[in-house]
């Protein structure tokens, strides 16, 4: 398997700045993977995943979601449309995941099961505002189905997260994924409103590096956009950080 390289300019920049972009939360805790996997299997069997709402310039067709908490409680609504965020019927099949979601003592925004099929990729992109440093929203991942051939890079960091662990990633930095395995990768992805409870999950050192991340984040984003436009000049508008597309096509 060919490994991801580390030579993209934004990777070099973020590495040189010395910032950390991922942080394991609840380090003393691993959730019950068998229970999580059984519930995901149930949910997927009963709800056909919706196509991801982001531009198709960013993936090759194997990227889909099922909403557990979404705008107005529609399990197939993947877009960040704002309040009201409500639990969907899919969460009724997942009481263990619901208890985990509820244990984060803050308002939830989108909470989704996100699937990347085998041999599929999500290309370099960044998610505007998805950073603890925004003071608004943080994105928490709990891997449920994963495999050792999944490759993930969050700028310069090679991300290796195990099933049942709880992780934060600063997805406002450029990131990419490739599932080189033979089975789907499925994560529970919880977007939470940042409050004192959420901040308490982070180490003081990680939070204290906020200013360094802020200094380097925008240059990294611009480098990644410039690179994508240079590679695909006819599709330049797709690579600008934009509002979600209006058609979360159901599949
Ligand atoms: Fe992303």
Task: Compose a concise summary of this entry.
This protein has helices spanning 9-17, 33-46, 95-102, 196-200, 204-208, 210-231; strands at residues 22-25, 50-51, 63-71, 85-87, 108-116, 121-125, 137-145, 150-154, 157-158, 166-169, 175-179, 185-193. With 251 residues, it is of the alpha+beta class.
Overview of this protein structure:
With 251 residues, this protein is an alpha+beta fold. The protein has a single domain, classed as B-lactam Antibiotic, Isopenicillin N Synthase, Chain (Jelly Rolls, Sandwich). Helix content is 25%, strand content 26%. The protein contains six helices and twelve strands. Strands 1, 2, 3, 4, 5, 7, 10 and 12 form an eight-stranded antiparallel beta sheet that branches. Strands 6-11-8-9 form a four-stranded antiparallel beta sheet, covered by helices on one side. α1 runs antiparallel to α6. The longest helix is centred in the C-terminal third of the chain and has 22 residues. The chain is globular, with a radius of gyration of 17 Å. The two termini are 30 Å apart. The site of fe (ii) ion has 4 residues, from loops.
Give the second-level CATH assignment, the architecture.
Sandwich
Distance between the termini: 30 Å
Per DSSP E runs of 2 or more residues, the count of β-strands stands at: 12
The succession of helices and strands, N to C, reads HEHEEEHEEEEEEEEHHH
Radius of gyration: 17 Å
What gross morphology would you assign? globular
In the CATH hierarchy, what is the class? Mainly Beta
CATH topology (level 3) name:
Jelly Rolls
Tell me roughly what share of residues is in helical segments.
25-40%
- Give the full name of the CATH homologous superfamily: B-lactam Antibiotic, Isopenicillin N Synthase, Chain
**Percentage of residues in strands:** 25-35%
Number of domains: 1
Mean pLDDT across all amino acids: 90
The number of helical elements comes to 6
């Amino acid at each position: 398997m060919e490994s991801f390289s580390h030579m993209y300019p934004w990777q070099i920049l973020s590495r040189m700045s010395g910032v950390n972009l991922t942080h394991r939360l609840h380090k003393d805790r691993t959730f019950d993977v068998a229970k999580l996997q059984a519930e995901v299997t149930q949910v997927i069997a009963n709800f056909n995943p919706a196509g991801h709402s982001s531009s198709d310039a960013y993936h090759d067709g194997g990227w889909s979601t099922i909403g557990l908490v979404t705008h107005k409680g529609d399990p197939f609504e993947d877009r960040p449309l704002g309040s009201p965020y409500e639990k969907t019927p899919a969460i009724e099949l997942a009481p263990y995941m619901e208890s985990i979601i509820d244990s984060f003592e803050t308002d939830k925004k989108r909470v989704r099961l996100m699937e990347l099929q085998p041999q599929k990729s999500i290309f370099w992109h960044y998610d505007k505002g998805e950073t603890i440093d925004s003071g608004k929203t943080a994105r928490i991942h709990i891997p449920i189905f994963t495999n050792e051939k999944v490759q993930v890079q969050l700028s310069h960091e090679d991300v290796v997260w195990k099933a049942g662990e709880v992780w934060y990633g600063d997805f406002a930095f450029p990131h990419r994924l490739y599932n080189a395995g033979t089975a789907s990768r499925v994560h529970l992805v919880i977007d939470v409103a940042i409050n004192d409870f959420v901040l308490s999950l982070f180490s003081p050192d990680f939070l204290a590096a906020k200013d360094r991340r802020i200094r380097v984040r925008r240059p990294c984003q611009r480098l990644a956009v410039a690179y994508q436009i240079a590679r695909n000049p006819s599709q330049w508008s797709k690579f600008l950080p934009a509002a979600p597309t209006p058609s979360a096509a159901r599949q």
